[in-house]
Design brief:
The complex is a heterodimer of chains A (435) and B (268). With 435 residues, chain A is mainly alpha-helical. In chain A, 63% of the residues lie in helices and 4% in strands. Chain A folds into two domains: 70-196, no CATH class; 214-431, MetI-like (MetI-like fold, Orthogonal Bundle). In chain A, 36% of the residues are buried. Helices cover 40% and strands 25% of the residues of chain B. The chains are: A mainly alpha (435), B alpha/beta (268). Chain A: Belongs to the binding-protein-dependent transport system permease family. CysTW subfamily.
Chain lengths: 435, 268
């Protein structure tokens, strides 16, 4: 703007009356409103951009993953009463032949070669599934029961439309004989696709049709429990000390800087530390949720301390002075007044920290929580996987069935994260107090 | 007790009946900055003493020395003696919790706890073990609220949050909370600055009544208020005590020209 234009601008000279109605002033306001609108548009664009990517992520996952939420099964009727089973030793009965006999009875006309193909339709652990159900309920031995046996992965994939039957036989994992037999089963109404509860209640397996997340979910649960039990009290205690007791000097500044730095340390470094210290020096068991929880709590602690300090700091001085004024001692001021007011924020921060820990993969890989483990852990010292490491394992597995299961596992993990964040929001709104 | 303290006690025995608190050469430093310069002041028993002076003159700082509320500020350093009933309150052996129970405080901005009205008043007596059961607590709460002139207004909603009251009611709740602990001295830091004239009148009347049982120190920016409620007035300026005398004398015939200028509104 030139010097003369500045001088001529309305309202610049203290003597001249301000011409609020002049065109120049009107244009000026218009430009300011336009800037307001632009800012709003940028913000909106940012939100749309972020939501768009989230939508792409979720639809991709849902699209690949939804097929893992159902499982193709064939119903097989087995007359156990007709079998000669030693009731004192149900487990050791010849379940393989009992199962095969039952299938043969349905299809008595198959040749030896056809029969071999036929049994491959079912999951290779079919007879164990029958056995385990009978072990759970021995009364089944007295009658005829229909068992829903999961189909082997290639057939499951075929039933879900993932296998192109028009390809030459040697380019697909389903033989022509199996396809024909499948059609027969289907024609007899023996094929169904119920909801895949096994995804939640089975542990991991080499066979996709049997693999589930039970081990990973309980592993994650135990690890998070350990993480919470350590980081929550320690984090709050440290934050209270730093905020309410520690003198402000070079040492506490140094501690503060270090805590802030720790919050930014990549998680894989904590994994290395866990490997070297917890497994190496202390000799704690590999793959155990306890060690996982320890490592995750190292990661959560700095965040939790920072959140807690911030929330303690946000409690107004007036509340502390009010309590001191009636003669409350330091711990009474903190425990009766400051901490209860800070608690909703602390709880929210804790849950968000735990949600972060739930999704953390790298440190768990380093302490061996990506092992292949076929039963859920019974406690914090038993080998286990966790949800993110289970996703890692499945994503690495070559079987077609694990593709959908990987996406399904991611959806389950995201579901847990959403649940935890919802709890955090609920707690904040429910317990937040105004003053 | 040291010899000096014994001597001090003996020498003051004469006046002790009339002097509740005494400050001798009190200077306060915030870091490098000095906020009070050697203040000597005697606070008479069962009377209201007003501290007046322009903003930043150190009157609030001085008052916060009387119950060691300045301890909460890290950079704050205090020299000089403050005694309560001839007992040095800055003696390392003194119990700060006891001191703050005996010297209660009401703040500029009403600051009830975000709890119920009942809990606000019952809190002090409970932590000091002044009440042993529910019935005694009920009595203390009712008595304190009645003396604060609030009971009639809130008796049907004792368990509703104290923060839901109006500003004037909140301030009276804070006064009830302070007197529930049965302090000997009540410090009031501009208790009416956030209140409308009607609420102010109620609180002033209350101060008037409380004088019979408590020693009251009040910081105020309102000359009229100082004139209405106090018997003694101390004028501060730039961290110095300028003049201290009977309120009547200060407002009719001040000795110091600064006081004269201030009360007539020529500066401040």
């Amino acid at each position: 703007m030139s010097q003369s234009a500045t001088a001529a601008a309305p309202g610049r000279s203290p003597q001249a009356p301000v011409l609020w109605k002049s065109q120049e002033m009107a244009d000026r306001r218009k430009a300011r409103y336009a800037a307001d609108r632009r800012l709003q548009m940028y913000g909106l664009a940012g939100i749309i951009f972020a939501l768009g990517f989230l939508a792409i992520l979720l639809t991709t996952l849902a699209f690949t993953g939804y097929k893992a939420f159902v499982q193709t099964t064939a119903s097989v009727e087995i007359n156990l009463a007709a079998q000669d089973i030693d009731r004192t030793d149900i487990r050791e009965a010849n379940w393989r032949s009992i199962f095969r006999d039952a299938v043969r009875q349905e299809f008595p006309d198959l040749s030896r070669a056809e029969e071999r193909e036929f049994f491959k339709i079912f999951t290779s652990s079919a007879h164990y599934l029958v056995r385990d159900r009978v072990l759970d309920n021995p009364a089944l031995l007295d009658g005829t029961t229909t068992f829903h046996i999961p189909l082997a992965d290639p057939l499951d994939q075929f039933a879900k439309g993932e296998v192109n039957p028009d390809l030459p036989e040697d380019q697909r994992r389903v033989s022509n004989a199996q396809l024909e037999l499948y059609e027969v089963l289907d024609a007899r109404g023996m094929i169904s696709q119920p909801f895949n509860w096994g995804l939640f209640f089975n542990a991991d397996s080499r066979f996709p049709e049997l693999a589930g997340l039970a081990g990973a979910i309980s592993g994650s649960f135990w690890a998070l429990l350990v993480c919470f039990l350590i980081s929550f009290p320690v984090g709050i205690a440290a934050a209270i000390y730093l905020e309410e007791f520690a003198p402000k000097n070079r040492w506490t500044d140094l501690i503060e800087i270090n805590i802030n730095n720790l919050a930014a340390v990549p998680s894989v470094v904590f994994g290395m530390l866990g490997l070297a210290v917890f497994l190496g020096w202390f000799g704690l068991p590999r793959s155990a949720p306890f060690v996982g929880g320890l490592v995750l709590s190292l990661m959560t602690l700095p965040t939790l301390i920072i959140v807690t300090r911030a929330s303690l700091k946000s409690v107004p001085m007036a509340i502390r002075e009010a309590a001191l004024g009636v003669g409350a001692s330091k711990h009474e001021v903190i425990f009766h007044h400051v901490l209860p007011l800070a608690m909703p924020t602390v709880m929210t921060g804790t849950i968000i920290g735990l949600a972060q820990a739930l999704g953390e993969t790298a440190p768990l890989l380093l302490i061996g929580m990506n092992a292949f483990i076929t039963s859920p852990p019974d406690g914090i010292f038993e080998a286990s996987t966790a949800l993110p490491t289970q996703i890692y394992i499945w994503a690495d597995s070559p079987e077609r069935g694990f593709v959908a299961r990987t996406s399904a596992a991611i959806l389950v993990l995201l579901g847990f994260l959403a649940l935890m964040n919802a709890i955090a929001i609920f707690l904040r709104q429910r317990f937040e107090r105004r003053w | 007790m040291s010899d000096a303290a014994v001597e001090a006690r003996l020498s003051t025995q004469e006046e002790e009946r009339d002097i509740k608190m005494r400050a001798r050469g009190v200077s306060v430093f915030y870091g490098q900055k000095q906020a009070l310069f050697g203040v000597d002041l005697e606070i008479p028993r069962h009377a209201v003493m007003a501290l007046i002076g322009p903003s930043g003159c150190g009157k609030s700082t001085f008052m916060r020395c009387l119950n060691r509320m300045n301890d909460t500020i890290d950079s704050c350093r205090i020299v000089g003696d403050v005694t309560l009933d001839a007992e040095d309150i800055y003696d390392p052996a003194i119990d700060v919790v006891e001191l703050r129970a005996r010297v209660g405080m009401v703040f500029q901005k009403p600051n009830p706890f975000p709890k119920s009205i009942y809990e606000n008043v019952a809190y002090g007596p409970r932590i000091h073990g002044l009440v042993r059961n529910r019935q005694e607590t009920d009595e203390v709460v009712e008595r304190s609220l009645t003396r604060a002139g609030l009971f009639k207004e809130v008796k049907d909603r004792l368990h509703e949050p104290g923060t839901g009251l109006s500003g004037g009611q909140q301030q009276r709740l804070c006064i009830a909370r302070a007197i529930a602990v049965s302090p000997e001295v009540i410090l009031m830091d501009e208790p009416c600055s956030a209140l409308d004239p009607i609420a102010t009148a109620t609180v002033e009347e209350l101060i008037h009544e409380l004088r019979e049982n408590f020693t009251i120190v009040i910081v105020t920016h309102s000359m009229q208020q100082a004139a209405r409620v106090s018997q003694r007035t101390a004028m501060f300026h730039l961290g110095n005590l300028v003049e201290e005398a009977d309120t009547d004398k200060i407002f009719t015939n001040p000795e110091d020209p600064l006081t004269q200028d201030y009360i007539t509104g020529r500066f401040g």
